[in-house]
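I have been asked to look over a protein record a colleague put together. The record follows directly below this note.
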Amino acid sequence: MNILFIINPISGTVKKSGVEHLINENLDLSKYNYSIKHTQYPHHATEIAKQESTNYKIIVAVGGDGTVHEVGLGLINTDTILGIIPMGSGNGLARHLKIPMSTKKAILLLNHFKSKPIDTVKINDTHFLGAGGIGFDAHISYLFAKATKRGFITYLKISVKEFFSYKEKEYQLTIDGKTFYRKAFLITFANSNQYGNNAFIAPNAVIDDGWISIVILKKFSLIFAIPLAIKLFTKKINSSKFVEEIKVKKAQIISPNKEIHLDGEPLLIENTINIEVLPLSLNVISNE
């Protein structure tokens, strides 16, 4: 069986110098014929995945959420299976699928070849796999992408610094033909249950049920930050008075600005955002 590893040498927080040795040592070579390709520029992983999808049964993203996002985009609506060796700062989709954070254990999981189809989400003319959003978290994603250091501590520092100046914004939402308005600090589109680092923004999200959760978080004062953080990391965020969760298959949101993040990757998009779940459109290696 042919398997391709796409390695992003500069993504995430973990050095990848020893990955190729670990692959050779731990991959079942009686089962797999493996190849390795390295990305050389942004979106290169998507190009490789698209080009090679007919040549490999499994294509493995080796890197952070951004690398997983890029490889996954190239495999939507194909028969090729997405594998993940998580080496990033958040590893949101990998954690949802219960893929080990240990590089060696993630490689050994590939030997068991346990796969399943999951939903993906179409956003205008692009897609995401796990979670996307607008508002404060999209703003932070932009700043984090420009930071010289990666990792959760850097993300936290940027978030704390920007919290005080970032203003709540008004959004127009249309769901099931009904239009309404919400003032929000951020709005998350959750296909998977977490951002990464076990920060569960939608604890009850199921990644293969044909629905996503739109999670609306209102602005809160600093005294509520620690209680909210505790709820976020203990799967209780949806019990907060600042949170509203709506399950949808399709939705339209009109945003006052163009910033958005998809699987943590920042980009600019049209103010009118059309969201649609694509049921069971991506095959993945899973440990669920």
User: Anything to note?
Assistant: The first helix runs from residue 19 to 26. The chain has a mean pLDDT of 94. Residues 2-113 form a domain with the Rossmann fold fold (CATH 3.40.50.10330). The helical segments are 19-26, 44-52, 65-73, 92-96, 103-112, 136-146, 152-163, 225-233.
